Amino acid sequence: MTQLDTFAFRPSSLQALDAMNIETATPIQSEAIPPLLAGRDVIGQAYTGSGKTLAFALPLVEQIDSDEKQLQALVMCPTRELAQQVGGVLDQLTRGAGIRTAVVFGGRAIGPQQDEIRAGAQVVVGTPGRILDHLNRRSMQLDKIRFLVLDEADQMLDRGFAPDVERILSRTSKSRQTALFSATTPEWVHRVSAKYLKNPVVIKSEPEMGDEPDIDHVVYEIWGGDKFAVLCRLLDEPTSGSTLVFGRTKYGVRNLAAKLHRQGYKVGELQGNLNQQQRDRVLNTFRDGKTPILVATNVAARGLDILHIERVINYELPETHELFTHRVGRTGRMGRSGRAITLLAAADLPKWHEIERGLGRKLPRITPDGEAIKPSTAPTRRTRGARGGRRSYGLGRARAGR
């Protein structure tokens, strides 16, 4: 195991790590930091909760000249929540180094963000749409960028974000150093990234024995039943942590949260139609434990780093196995155990078979009464990120956890 203080970091970074009580490098940090410090481009893939942010943030800080009051590093994130989280980590690392950071995203007034950048921000973390706003208003210049990061690169280079990302990259120096990080890097990411990176070091960090996410997966087959009734019975189970419930659409999440609220559950909702103030309030109450249940779209699948999430429930399936990986990665973080529960109706089967093919494994299925189904398809040994068939979760009426 590599100690982080063996790398050539500036003293202020080592002091920040000490204040965070972080000493040992995770596998992705051990593999990515040396080439990044050497100036190489990097594509890094590692499981959620593996320390990817520090893997690029620590080398980024080393590239900054605190005497130059101009923008030198840019980190692009797909969601406001992830931008805020990454910005928080960088703020901790740079506080003692005389380096100024700014976080920019939509939903908040652009004026204060412009003031921060013009005051000499050397690092900007932001979402593509708001970064383009600043570029168009000439409040941000990218010609001096030395270090550029695409966090959650699979989403950043997908068709939805790619045009904005490409416009931004076209305004940066071709001599920049570029890093792409994500929990999943489909083959098309490597093809697209060939346009943006120079002979990158490709890192696929597998968890070491004992370091893999400790997540129990189970799938409930609800052929003729009511998904909502099964969800309520799950939420009635006593838990020591919080529950994150994923829906598919903004409209569906809003309706599901309202339905649960009418049933007496203390629940928050996170979806794209909320303004920034509402999103912040919902996340803060969930993070503080005041709201034990959060119903969310995939906006919460990436970057939501809340250690007390005990369960993730897929009320509706995601579109891809990569999104499934991101969703369930919200639990079982930093050495804690977690549960990932998927509710499967008959109409979900084609999509579920596609997800399992992408995952490369079958997950154990049970009925709502806890009866195991198709035991021959359940994993016979512990697989990475899943412990199949070790126990079943019967849905007998438990005392309410409302």
Give your account of this protein's structure:
This protein is of the alpha/beta class. It has helices at 11-19, 27-37, 52-62, 80-94, 110-118, 128-136, 153-156, 162-169, 187-193, 227-235, 250-262, 276-287, 321-328, 349-359; strands at residues 42-46, 73-76, 101-104, 123-126, 147-151, 177-182, 201-205, 214-221, 242-246, 267-270, 293-296, 309-314, 337-344, 365-366, 372-373. An 8-stranded mixed β-sheet has the order 10-11-9-12-13-8-14-15, with helices on both faces. A 7-stranded parallel β-sheet has the order 3-4-2-5-6-1-7, with helices on both faces. The radius of gyration is 22 Å and the shape is globular. The relative contact order is 0.12.
Give the helix/strand layout.
Blueprint: H1 11-19, H2 27-37, E1 42-46, H3 52-62, E2 73-76, H4 80-94, E3 101-104, H5 110-118, E4 123-126, H6 128-136, E5 147-151, H7 153-156, H8 162-169, E6 177-182, H9 187-193, E7 201-205, E8 214-221, H10 227-235, E9 242-246, H11 250-262, E10 267-270, H12 276-287, E11 293-296, E12 309-314, H13 321-328, E13 337-344, H14 349-359, E14 365-366, E15 372-373
Helix pairs in contact: 2-3, 3-4, 6-8, 13-14
* Strands, total number: 15
Tally the structural domains. Answer: 2
Beta percentage is 15-25%
The CATH architecture classification of the largest domain is 3-Layer(aba) Sandwich
Radius of gyration: 22 Å
Widest β-sheet, arrangement of strands: 10-11-9-12-13-8-14-15
Q: CATH-wise, what's the superfamily of the largest domain?
A: P-loop containing nucleotide triphosphate hydrolases
Structural class: alpha/beta
Q: Which fold name fills CATH's third level, the topology of the largest domain? A: Rossmann fold
- The level 1 CATH classification of the largest domain is Alpha Beta
The coarse overall form would be globular
| Nearest-integer average pLDDT | 85
Calculate the terminal CA-CA distance, rounded to whole Å: 42 Å
Largest sheet: 8 strands, mixed
Contiguous runs where pLDDT drops below 50 for at least 5 residues: 375-402
Amount of helix: 25-40%
How many DSSP H or I helices? 14
User: How do the SSEs run, as a string of H and E?
Assistant: HHEHEHEHEHEHHEHEEHEHEHEEHEHEE
